[in-house]
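Quick one: structure tokens for this chain, please?
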Amino acid sequence: MNSILPLREALLGHRLYAEFKSLGQLQKFMEHHVFAVWDFMSLLKALQRGITCVETPWVPVGEPRLRRLVNEIVMGEESDVTESGEVLSHFELYLNAMREIGASTQRIEQFVDGLRSEKSLETALTEADLPVCVRGFVRHTFGVIGGGKLHEIAAAFTYGREDLIPEMFGAMVAHLDEELPGRLTILRYYLQRHIELDGDHHGAMGREMVSLLCGQDVEKQQEAETAAKQALQARLNLWDGIADITEFRSGVSIGAKG
């Protein structure tokens, strides 16, 4: 998918990374980015629901290789093992990382609690009082899911999310190691797990899923490419929005205690 390269480069070179100059900025970033961590799992679960049987009585459905790919990714993302041996989803691990650095989890927890109480996605988004860039990002994700085309969901998942994470987070890990030594233990572990899993395994698995779901169908291949580009653009819009938020530009100096 050579057509997605300009968007990938724009994301990997985004000004947001260079603006991490304070602990307060990192806190604000995580308070917004956590919604992308959350809705990533919804993309993955939409794939699992479409590719495997999640009903009872169970019957074998679909392509066995696809089932193996999606179930293996789900296992790593929904039930990974932490350094202490605890089993957590990457979303729950990210929440712990937020708490470790003093970032507020109030909005994301209110949002998830709303969903648990069977409020609609739109109601939960509205009540969480989120910035436009975050609401737009989540709505795009659920627009892809709502479209119901597995090859498009897989392309958004792989090229807009999974395939991008190793390089994107690799730059952040290097910066954080230099600027905040010893102060971001859980976050560094979270980022390293993404680099290990996505760089070595999940990225390749995602690309294979897209290939198997599209097959030799040119129309599906084109739709998958369009979905990948739109997912990258949605991420770029989110990054632009976070960088433009006034509060993100202020905060406690990275060298300060807090």
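The chain has a mean pLDDT of 87.
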